[in-house]
Amino acid sequence: TAKRICTEVTSRLKFLNPDQLDLLVEGTMQEQRYLLWLAICQRYRLIHDFTTEVIHQKFLQLSLSLTHQDYEIFFNQKQEWHPELEKISETKRKKSRQTIFQMLKEAGLLTRDQAINPALLSSRLSALIGQDSEADWRVFPVQSLEIR
């Protein structure tokens, strides 16, 4: 188990640039959570797409409730373009949803009652997001006016 966890964490951290890794070490607990969320989204395309296509869009529309049905609709739409997703069992699909929602809660982006929490990015974290790609901003529930 320890080897698997180490491999998983390492695979995520590879997606952060050196400045982001420095802040991960030196930053506050919330900055660390946001950076880890960014790394997860960069590592896993499905999570990235769910975050940018569903969560970020709902936040911009001020529809702050995230439901299991939101995930199911998203997943069904993805299946149309990615036939390999049809091979995923219902059990694995539910486990995937449960894991994503739990990670969102741990990152501070989703409340216990499934409400989307706006990301409160520090100035030093804001300076590092988008260094590699402007698309990195969309993995956080923030208004475009808040960016920089």
Biggest sheet layout: none
Distance between the termini: 40 Å
CA radius of gyration: 15 Å
Count of distinct strands: 0
SS summary, helix count: 7
% residues in beta strands: under 5%
- Which bin fits the share of residues in helices? 55-70%
The low-pLDDT segments are none
From the spread of the alpha carbons, the general shape counts as: globular
Structure class: mainly alpha
What does this protein structure show overall?
With about 150 residues, the protein is mostly helical. It has helices at about 1-15, 20-25, 30-45, 45-60, 70-80, 90-105, 125-130. The radius of gyration is 15 Å and the shape is globular.
Short description:
The chain is an all-alpha fold. Helices cover 60% and strands 0% of the residues.
What is the strand and helix layout of this fold?
Elements: H1 2-13, H2 18-26, H3 29-43, H4 45-60, H5 68-81, H6 90-106, H7 123-128
Helix pairs in contact: 2-3, 3-4
Comma- or semicolon-separated keywords:
0% strand, single chain, 60% helix, mainly alpha, 148 residues
